[in-house]
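Review form for a predicted model. The reviewer records the input and the model, then writes brief findings.
Reviewer: anonymous (R2)
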Amino acid sequence: MTKQQRPTFPITALILLLCTPLAAWWLIGDLTGDEARQLAAEGVELDYAIRPVSLGTTGDRIVGVLACVGVVLALAWLLRATARRGLDRRWWWVLAPLVAAGALLGLAWRVLTAGGIGANIGAGLMLIAGGPALAVLLIVAAVAALRMRRNRPSRAPHHSG
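Model under review:
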């Protein structure tokens, strides 16, 4: 990575990692089933594991579109920097699992906020399967980051004794 690109990489990576869960959340959309929607339209109160947060149809769309643009632009910059050898390819061993974790978080939020009648079985399954999957992704990213730190070239001159 050149000196000129160093400050840009963390910012671009941060944009990618913050926008990914939001983009996934928006692209997945509300997972409330058709039956539950019909019952809600008839006045039946739906049950939620977690009540969804919404900025309204337009607000949600703006957030989703901006998040998708952020993901695309950040990925494009990072891929370009990698192709030009301005970004060490080993960073992808850190970024890829973190991006996957972000997509999993977007999916989990949609599952946990889906309306239904009675228990939300998907929410329980998401916690049982998604929790360990998220932990594995975060551990893989942490191990990759530690390996990069351990294997980076030393800047101090070597002295032979």
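Findings: Residues 1-5 have pLDDT under 50 and may be disordered.
Further findings: The chain has one domain: 8-151.
Recommendation: see findings above.
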